[in-house]
Write a structure and sequence with these properties.
mainly alpha, two-stranded antiparallel sheet
Length: about 450
Amino acid sequence: MSLVRPPPQDLRGALRHLGPGLIVSAAIVGSGELIVTTKLGAEIGFTLLWFIILGCLIKVFLQVEFGRYAVSHGRTTLQTLDSIPGPRWIVSWLVWFWMLMFVATFFQVAGMVGGIVGALRLAGWSAGLSDATWVGAVCAVTAVLLAVGHYRMIERFSAVMVAAFTIFTVAAVVALAWTPYALQWNQLAGGLRFELPASFTIAFAAFGIIGVGASELIYYPYWCLEKGYAAFVGPDDGSDAWKERARGWIRVMNLDAWVSMVIYTLATVAFYLLGAAVLHARGTQVTDRDLMASLSEMYRETFGAIGFWGYLAGALIVLYSTVFIATASNGRLMADLLRLLRLIRARTEPQQRRVVQLTCLALPIVYFVLYLTVGAPVSLVLVGALAQALMLPLLAGSTLYLLYRRTDPALRPRGPWISCLWISASLMAVVGLYQAFDQARKWWP
């Protein structure tokens, strides 16, 4: 049965078809914002506020370009990366490089599971059970939910989780006005002035994970495909009707991406300001050992005891939503990778769904083993964050190649958009080179 349908003609109709961006936002408003961004604010204060805002804004151009290609060609991100020219052995060199980042993100998700357990223990809700037991329970619940779930359940779960904690965190920033840590205009102005810290490592990790990180750029097309955007467009028959449908559904996808950008930018800036205003002023360090206790101080200072309990509930929501969505997304990536490596043959849709269910069951076991082996939430998250940041320049180059060599001229964006895309890609390359130089100085004084 054909799923081809015309795109909505007004904003109200387009809003009814949003969804992939909400799922990605639930993954974004997690370890990057709650842990890495807050840690950055705690260490250097307001200095890099401009960098945080820029990091959220510029990546949306890459997100839309990957989405554009998925909607018009009906191909997953890994299939797309595998088609880019270069050396290959079974799959493209770019897919092999991505695999390194993919494995590193397992550490990141394991760190978030550890954060959940830390929040439970800090609240006194651990019921005398060991950390290993709670980590196993969180992983088991995630595996079961995803094995029986489907797209609509994941979309609704994401919307509720994102709304709950974003509203609470923005309210915490507003409440600073009634505390000794009230935001001052000179602090905000200083944070918007271009300035770099002595060491860029944590900032680089934050750049890789805030907003749409490399993982979310890769996730996004999968959720666009599951939402049905590409199916609504239909196969490219070269007709004017197909081009018109493609342009219409690309506009819907574009709106979806920008709405999600507004949501995760609000949350990211709020976390950074709380870290800079409260934790930096108090000289609090966000470490593996006292992660949840340190972060809870931001809310205790703004809302008192109610804020402390609200923070713990919110932390559980935001961390678990990210674990849930990351596992759902990684399960789809793993299934796609196994097909590309020719390790499985899943030709029908029911077979593909079965493989995704199995990978969603397997990945939580990996997180469980990693956390028990390493057991350092902040360090685990930073491993994944740095790996994502190193992947960003390659993804930026890929979007430019797809735009100029693979996208139908009738579907290409106009001049101002292309200029912003080039700026985005260039900035990502510059940040990558800066980090390489920064690390080289430490290794070879």
